[in-house]
Write a structure and sequence with these properties.
- It is a single chain.
- With 128 residues, this protein is of the alpha+beta class.
- The protein is built from three helices and six strands.
- It has one domain: Nuclear Transport Factor 2, Chain: A, CATH 3.10.450.50.
Length: 128
């Protein structure tokens, strides 16, 4: 598979991940994230896979999630994806939705079952 094909595949997987977060599609999220996932929210909160799955299935509902300015660097069976993320979310314990603009770095690793996201790190954008 060429680097262009890998890049297209990963961008499509990221699109699917975003859609799964909005739909609370646990099966898709389970398939895209390995047990060793490290997920750091833009608030600085660190979660493992089990914590993140519980959070997005019960506490945080994504209403919108858009990615832009995605760049992918491929290093064999590892790829680094960076880009901007706009999200609008509703917490179960808060009356009003919130919006966030973040820069995100993700690590994707090719495993026998396909590409999975092993690391996610977001930081609030300076103008968001």
């Amino acid at each position: 598979m060429s680097e262009q094909q890998v890049t297209a595949t990963l961008i499509d997987l990221e699109r699917r991940r975003g859609e799964a977060l909005i739909r609370r599609d646990a099966a898709t999220l389970e398939a895209l994230m390995p047990a060793e996932l490290v997920h750091i929210h833009s608030t600085g909160t660190l979660m493992n896979k089990a914590q993140l799955m519980h959070y997005v299935m019960t506490t945080l509902q994504f209403l919108e999630l858009e990615r832009s300015e995605l760049k992918v660097q491929v290093y064999g069976d590892v790829a680094i994806m960076t880009g901007r993320m706009h999200s609008r979310m509703q917490r179960a314990d808060k009356p009003e939705p919130v919006s966030a603009e973040s820069w995100v770095t993700q690590v994707w690793v090719r495993q026998p079952r396909g590409w999975v996201q092993t690391h996610f790190h977001a930081v609030r954008a300076a103008n968001g």
